[in-house]
Amino acid sequence: MAGAHGGNFSLMPPVRIPAAQTKVLILVGFAFLIAGYDIALMGFVLAPVAKEFNVTMGSEAEIVMWARLGVLLAFPLAMLADRFGRRAILLVTITGSAVTTLATAFAQSEEQFIVLQAAVRMFGYAQDMISIVVIAEEIDDRARGWALGLLAASAAVGGGLSGLIFAGIDVLPYGWRALYVIGAVPIFVIAWAWRSMPETRRFQELRAEAANPGSGHEVQSALARFRALTTVHGKRFFALLAVTAPLAFGITAASVLIQTYLQVDLGVSPGVVTLIFVSGGVVGLVGNFVAGRLSDRVGRKPVFITASIGFAAAMGGLYLGSHNLYLIAVLWGLGVFAFFAMEVVMGAWSAELFPTEQRSTASGARLATNIIFGGAALLTVSLLYGPMGGHAHAIAVLLPSIFIATLVAWLTIPETAGKTLEQIAADGEKKH
Predict the structure, then answer these.
(1) DSSP states of 239-279
(2) Which residues have CB under 8 Å from 313's CB, separation 6+?
(3) CATH class for the region spanning 19-204+218-430
(4) How far apart are CA 189 and CA 399, in angstroms?
(5) What is the rounded distance in angstroms from the CA atom of residue 45 to the CA atom of residue 163?
(6) How many CB atoms are located within 10 Å of the residue 55 CB?
(7) CA distance linking residue 68 with residue 3, whole number of Å
(8) How far is 55 from 385, CA to CA, in rounded Å?
(9) Quick check: 143 and 296 in contact, CB under 8 A?
(10) Number of C-alpha atoms within 13 angstroms, CB side, residue 37?
(11) Distance CA 237, CA 368 (A)
């Protein structure tokens, strides 16, 4: 194909994707789309939910913080995929996502809403972690970046859909609750379709080599895998977490509170909020493919460094600059583009840097770190809301920590683009 070997750039895969791999991409891609809808939805409904449950203005970020802590439970759930297989745990996560998303529509208090959304995130993020591992293990090594970009693009489309439906919140029966019912129905359909999801070839090979596949002592096995990460692969593992922590602290509030900032601080109507969010999502959609292909061609590190600097600049301009809505829309689009480019690379690193038996565990640890430091950022914004006179400055003051992540990535993360998973693992073993 044009773009695979020549100088022309293409959004198509760099190599031909076989039918079996295409099926996996479609099944996982649809799940990412719905997950993107559900995760983005909280940002849209945060203001009306806070109003209905009488949450103090400026404390909305704490709802997100507590709900995101549910992701910490996603870590041990994802670790089970290294024991019982990718397919089995994926079926558990997609079913759990469907049930808890539907239940959110019937929350009767702030506490119920937080608990249910924490459960949604537990299942949803575990699903994302394992799905990234599935793509890394099943898709051609020359197209991993492109495939991960496709997943991120699917999530962006889901986020855009939540924005489009949010525009009708004033006419939908039961308001924000209807949005969760709408989001739950397709998850049940996807859960049914995932019955045909095959187990990954690499996990089947790993299980075939195991002395006692499927035996007990799951907790001990999980702890052993985690111990190996921190010892045998400790340099790579702690480098990944050292990038993740400051990055999450810098980007989380700017990403998840944009809708609340527009509605609460600027008084923007739901329709205009949707227009701004969706326009940024379209840019981000293209950005996923561009970032994925570029990370395959020029390397993961150059794409990550460029995207992180671009995100900090765009978000700084959005929150500290003019309140012109056209400019906000442009800056949001650039920020979304950069955000998903970073996510594509971080997702690739969490799957590529570690051997098969520890891949889900490493991905889970990365996401748990993201949630802890992202939660710290949201709590910081809540504390700074009053002293700094609103969301804008409270969010912007956290952005410089992104540059710490950029420096750490440049100094410590090895380049993985274009290498097979076995080559990457061998490179790591040579240094121990």
Answers:
(1) HHHHHHHHHHHHHHHHHHSHHHIIIIIS---HHHHHHHHHH
(2) none
(3) mainly alpha
(4) 39
(5) 10
(6) 17
(7) 39
(8) 14
(9) yes
(10) 23
(11) 13
* Lookup: tokens for 311: 């995100």
Report the distance separating Cα 149 and Cα 159, nearest Å: 15
Q: Of the candidates 55, 170, 156, 158, which has an alpha carbon nearest to the alpha carbon of residue 114? A: 55
- Distance between CA 284 and CA 299 in Å, rounded? 20
- The candidate with the shortest Cα–Cα distance to 159, out of 266, 48, 285, is 285
Length, in residues, of the chain: 432
Task: List the chain pLDDT tens, one digit each, 432 residues.
Answer: 334 444 444 556 667 777 777 777 887 888 788 778 887 788 788 888 888 888 777 677 788 888 887 877 877 777 777 677 677 788 888 888 889 989 999 999 989 999 999 998 888 888 877 777 777 777 776 776 777 777 777 777 787 788 788 877 778 888 889 989 888 888 888 778 776 666 666 666 666 655 444 444 555 565 666 676 666 667 888 888 999 999 999 999 998 888 888 888 888 888 888 888 777 667 666 666 677 677 777 788 899 999 999 999 999 999 998 888 888 888 988 898 898 888 888 878 877 777 766 676 777 788 788 888 988 998 898 889 888 888 889 999 999 999 999 999 999 888 776 666 666 665 555 555
Distance CA 294, CA 302 (A): 9
Contact 229, 365 (CB under 8 A): yes
Alpha carbons 133 and 351: distance in angstroms, whole number: 6
Give every CB contact of residue 239 below 8 A, 6+ residues apart in sequence. 408, 412, 413
Start-end of H helices in 322-358: 325-352
Q: How far apart are CA 52 and CA 37, in angstroms?
A: 22
CA angle 363, 364, 366 (to 5 degrees): 65
Measured CA to CA, the distance from residue 10 to residue 422 in angstroms comes to 27
**N-term to C-term CA, the chain:** 39
Residue recorded with tokens 């490493």: 362
Non-local CB neighbours of 206 within 8 Å, separated by 6+ positions: 356, 357
- 33-50 burial by CB neighbour count: b if 16+ within 10 A, else e? bbbbbbbbbbbbbbbbbb
For residue 345, give both structure tokens: 């690379």
Listed residue (237, 236, 239, 234) closest to 409, CA to CA? 239
The residue type of 194 is: W
d(C-alpha 96, C-alpha 90), whole Å: 10
Contact indicator for 367, 129 with CB cutoff of 8 Å: yes
CB 181 within 8 A of CB 105: yes
